[in-house]
Amino acid sequence: MADTSSETFTLVITGAPYSSQAPQTALGFARAATDAGHRIARVFLYGDGVHLASALCTPPSDETHWPKEWASFLEHHGIPGIACIASALRRGLVNEAERKRYALPGSNLLHPFEIAGLGEWVEGRRTSARTLYFHAGG
């Protein structure tokens, strides 16, 4: 008989949405896991993975808009989506607080993503049964 107990996962995405399959593969896993009754505690974006949280991404109309797909999934399931602050700032991704701090002309963080430190990754590892990494590969 199959084990039907649920598990809690933290997902870490390090690959950018249009130069790797990491965000797509992670979303496929996340959908399958939640459909099977498992819980995603948080999604942590690190390195180039923070591009997934950009509100300025505009793919051609015949391509999947991965940032919007992820934002919709996170909102629907009430899952925190966290972009590493160091990775985000290095790549020009800022929320309103960082925009003000650095006197930048605008912010570009896609809702419901948040910017936070590595403590969020540590907390995810501590409280989840498993932490899965989705890398760019190569």
From TrEMBL:
The species is: Marinobacter metalliresistant
Pfam families from the UniProt entry: DsrE
Q: Which GO terms describe its molecular function?
A: transferase activity
Q: PANTHER family annotated for this entry?
A: PROTEIN YCHN (PTHR34874), SULFURTRANSFERASE TUSD (PTHR34874:SF3)
Using the UniProt record, name the top-level EC class of this enzyme in a single word: transferase
Which protein, by its recorded name, is this? Sulfurtransferase complex subunit TusD
NCBIfam families recorded: PRK00207.1, sulf_tusD_dsrE
**Lineage top rank: taxon:** Bacteria
